[in-house]
Amino acid sequence: MKPFLFARASSQLHSGVVPFSTAPLLTKNKTPVLRITTKAPLLLRLAKTMIRWRIRGGDRLVGIVERLGLLNVIVQYPLGRGVNFSVPLFRADTCWDRHDVDQYERRLVHSFCRLLEPLSDVVLFDCGADIGTFSALVCSQTSRVTRVMAFEPNPDVAQFMKRNLLQLLIPSEAITKAVGCCKSTGRLEVPDYDNSDHARYLVLGDGALEVVTIDSCAVRGGDIAIKVDVEGGELEALRGAAETITSARNCVIAVEANPRVARRTKRDPVECLRFLQSLRHFKFEIAETAESPLISSALITEGQKRNLNVIAWT
Fold this sequence. Notes:
By secondary structure, the chain is of the alpha/beta class. The protein folds into two domains: 18-102, no CATH class; 104-313, Vaccinia Virus protein VP39 (Rossmann fold), CATH 3.40.50.150. It has ten helices and 15 strands. The strands form three sheets. A seven-stranded mixed sheet has the order 7-6-5-12-13-15-14, sandwiched between helices. Helix 5 links the parallel strand 5 and strand 6 (145-151). The protein starts with 17 loop residues before the first strand and ends with a strand.
């Protein structure tokens, strides 16, 4: 379990900020006082700009901002369509300024929403939701999604996922469980190449973590959308959604293709596309390049480092 990094923060409230409940996030001997604001601290925005422009000292400035206690806030970014999105800056994985939020999986979100446009009353399954970023961005850019079911097994971010789903203005459910091919239990492991929360993956067997299937949600018929980013468990998640996919009127499905995960699992993400094609006819597109991949060959090429996202639609 990767701990959150809490910086010291003043208990004094300033104009434009309100207290935020931190009960689920408290750790021994640490009682951070978090505040909500609508902008990232100026010094953090400067540091992020330096990093993006490859100006030396940007990363060091982020560390200084943290030590000053300026990251001990929740920034509530207003998105489109009345959606607000709360980001905990004190968490290393989500220390984001507005530019980071706007650019998050930008091509994937844009292509995903474009393919949703002909559909109606879409149920979105967000598997590997973290704090609900993908759901928030999609719902801020299209009106086609009318219900969200988000799965995130990391209990440390449950409060933020729930808060962000409540701000979608449509029915939603935050499910603090993992998704797989069958009902089971397991635990989260940290790979040797990345110790961030985003890289943790499911190991079935011993463990208190509950594993469920998308099919268990009993959504049959109508239009559905599924985003699967579960660090190597994508094929299992899709197998556990077979009835949902085959019974749907229309489907839009996004699957991550991560080279490091493929090497760890010794399984190419093309297996996900082949499985989907075995259920019904799909078209495929790589969101980042707009290319149509062939399911007869591997998606991950020799020496590839860049993560890709493949969208399948009926």
